[in-house]
Amino acid sequence: MKKRIVCLTLALMMTATQVVSVSASREDELREEQAATSAQLDATYAQIDQLYSAKQQLQDEINSLDANLVNVMVSIQTLEGDISNKEADIQQTQADLQKAQNAKDKQYAAMKQRIQYLYEKGGNEAWFQMMMSADNLSDLLTKAEYTQKMYDYDRQSLEKYANTITQVTNLGNQYQQEKAELEGMKQEYEAQSVDLQNQIDTKKANSADCDNEIAYAQEMANEYANLIQEQQAEIEQLEAERIAAEEEARRQAEAEAAAAAAAAAEEEAAQQEQEDQTVYDEDGNEVDASEAAENGDTVYDEDGNEVDPSQTTTETTTEDSGSSDVEYDEYGNVIDSDNTVDPDTVDTSSSSSSSSSSSSSGSGSSIVDYATQFVGNPYVWGGTSLTGGADCSGFTQSVYAQFGYSLPRTSYEQQNWGTEVSYADAQPGDLICYGGHVAIYMGNGQIVHASNSRDGIKISNNAAYRTILSVRRPS
Length: 475
Fold this sequence. Notes:
Blueprint: H1 2-120, H2 126-133, H3 137-275, E1 279-280, E2 286-287, H4 289-295, E3 299-300, E4 306-307, E5 327-328, E6 334-335, H5 364-372, E7 384-385, E8 389-390, H6 392-401, H7 411-414, E9 419-421, E10 431-434, E11 437-443, E12 446-452, E13 456-460, E14 470-473
Antiparallel strand pairs: 1-2, 3-4, 5-6, 7-8, 9-14, 10-11, 10-14, 11-12, 12-13
Helix pairs in contact: 1-3, 2-3
Protein name: Hydrolase
Keywords: Coiled coil, Hydrolase, Protease, Signal, Thiol protease
GO biological process, one term: proteolysis
């Protein structure tokens, strides 16, 4: 009887479970949809982070390009000042050349006049006439010595002015060459400024595209967030309805189970009462109702009324009781208590390695010897290859790197590297820094540097050919 009650209760609970299964199924679908929407939202936020990073990188590049553009413009202004000074030097050498030429012409004219005078006064016999006109030997020697001094003075003067003209001419040519080199550098800086401005414009356009993509991604993220909220609200509503339905079904199941148990109890009580009824034979003797029913005997109750012995006996069935390993939940589902899994323990380990580097330094003469190996190689703006092409700061950076020195990349940064010394104290291996340009001092007023695209890496004999802003010594 107890088993029948348990089965009835489980059946009622399973019916209650079926009632809420439809709601739970829709709730599960919504949770799956919400998980997918959340994944899309996370992906969108990740995309926004990437776009912000890309935009920040573009802004950093724009700032760097702006700084380079300012440096190039400053270099152009410095070169314009150097060119103006060089033009003044050229004009001065032209004036000096004209003065020397005028002095030479004047001296040459005076010499010609004296020679003409001597020739007109005696020609080839001038020396004879000078001897004849002399009052005495002392007067003759005096006149001869004076004439010889005049010849020596004229010759020395002409040689002096000729040398002056040669020196001034050479200096003028040097200034012209240096001016041409400065003008070439100015043209390259002007080309660099145009290229930098084009790069800035392109990166600004790319940054604007990032802004548009960020705005669109943010709009999509807002839509995903709103959808998640809507899904969550519907899930909470379904969950509340499911819980209420489960509670109602459980209440009904418990009520029905209680009613069934009460009915079963009444039936059992009536049956027990019937089993406890005593029957008698016709002589009034108490008999076994079961045996009387089997023999077909007539029996009577205690009041003498005839009764049917089959209705006063109950077949007794013995139900073996025992224990079962099967357990059920409140909905009648089988619970397997042995269905457990011990989690595995995963040991993780990591190792790290370290590396070390060493650097060596060299003397200034070693730096110069190494740098001059690359004279004749090309100049390439932005390059750092000693053989394939380098600009001025890329050349110095790569040379010094061979001796363990880490120079900044640009000429403007290299102006603050190392220890500053005066040009008068400059030694081989020092950096000579100009406006937007840098070179390696060789000694004796010479420098080796990546000059321009026309001359490439070269040696210049005049380190002060333009304004020197700083001299830096490795430290």
